[in-house]
Amino acid sequence: MDIWQETFSVGFRDIDPSDRLTLGALFDYFQEASINHAENLGVGRASMAQTGQLWILSRISVVLERRPRYRETITLRSWPRGTEKLFALRDYLIQDASATPLVRARSAWLILDMEKHRPLRPQGVVDKLPLNQGLDALHQGLPGLNTRVLTKVGERRAAYSDIDYNRHVNNARYIQWIQDIIDPELLEQAPHMRLDVNYLHEIKGGETTELWSAPLSDSGFAFEGRRQDTGQAVFRAELWI
Question: What's the predicted TM-score (pTM) here?
Fold first, then answer.
């Protein structure tokens, strides 16, 4: 299937007190669609493992135009979108029952050597996938986020519930960490959002990540996670509400 499609009913676990979908839950939807489509296209987890490779999410930009409500039926479409340097691109579009766009997103994935954990050129895999030329969910996205002057606001120790199959903190868990930094009322009241995330280095179980943040102009926030032992940046993000 060139374009993957799934229909969801927004569940109770996916909402906050405003009765609307959270960013963290949205990333869970993205993740499931990506995995299911990769399996359908023959480049899923098992197939990639046979050649000593795995997919890693590196960057993602998400524009949430309207937050769907509890039990609202939404349709998620996702498709590969070619390459950009070492990145394999994948777009997402979520629509409501009347086909009105709710969410637009673009992601960039790296193919890693499982043993050496080094990026590989994606062409050998991506050349087998549909290009979907001209089909853009998000025309502008995937910025490289710069270092900013930030203030430490907390820390998180990666526990069992944070870790996924690849034995590192799952990409959606970072979004939950970001949500927990912000004033809950701001998130609950937000009718729309934009989030840009750069995943820089993996975090493994037991490691502690310091969380740093600062306000930006026009209702924006910058975030950075840093290893407690070395100060190395492991992720950067910007959220606009």
Answer: 0.95
